[in-house]
Amino acid sequence: MTNTLVALHRAGLRCRVVLRRLVVTAILALPGMSTQASDSYPDQPVHIVVPYGGGGIADQVPRLLGNQLQRHFGQAFIIESKPGAGGLIGADYLLRQPADGYTVLSAATNNLVINQFLFPDQKLDPLEQFTPIAKLVSVPLLIVVNAELPIRSLDELIAYLRVQKGDANYGSPSAGTLPHLAGALLLQASNTKAVHVPYRGGGAMVTGLGAGEVQFAVIGYLSVQAMLQSGRVRALAVVAPQRLAVLPEVPTVQEAGWGKLLAAIPDNWWMLVARKDTPAERREALSSAVLSVLQTPELVRQYEDAGLQINAQAGPALEQELRQEAQVWQEKLQGLELNM
For the whole model, what pTM was predicted? Predict the structure, then answer.
């Protein structure tokens, strides 16, 4: 009799354990109750917002990345262009979307560590409103001129600007972008003047440069690649410690005798960010995938061919780096003459 009672007791325990497991499984299957939101993420297309016009680096960096992420997840990554106001329109658009990881922003340097100082009336606080998914690439900048000008060196450009006494023009994809600020920093470092002409995107700016609407620009290689190859634009120097592999004949600013520009003009970079309140599991799932695809030989080659340098970073240290960089830019912007 005793053995029978023990056996029944053990059987009851096993039934209760199985029942509890079934109840937990059922609860976790309910919407919003999963402890791993990344298990099925993404189960619908992910939209990457580009806060600038089509063409050039702004478009190609996320598009090439999106192609690889689509293969990684088996889910579509759609590029959405929301240009205007130095990237503010695209940033605001992201803030008005659900914080579910299905809309993210391809952000440049100015979107995260500069615009809050340039446009204080916008009450933008990107370091509090956004969180980085991963840093993608750094963009060494080229100092380029319209090829019809008799300017073949950085020294000759500086001399030309001094003769023009403020009558020359330089272009950028939009007011407040790093090419705009880099041009202003070049003028400050060389004690020269020129008029800033903002365009609606990198493609439009480069077209204007090739047509002679502006005389020079400080921009990434990918934006001017076609114009360089056609001979309508000439590269004078690269703002980087080493020459670009895609332009081995173009000297660095140090080699051109203007090494102080290397310290004056920081790198531009691109980063994928989400709303701050996006579920951590989804941010981590996307971050892990981005870091993985940034190692694929095809994407590495595509970025290098575009004059970009892989700069894969993620995690809490990246947020701290952004805060430090914001402080540097806040100091740089003080006293900088900007034609907005």
Answer: 0.80
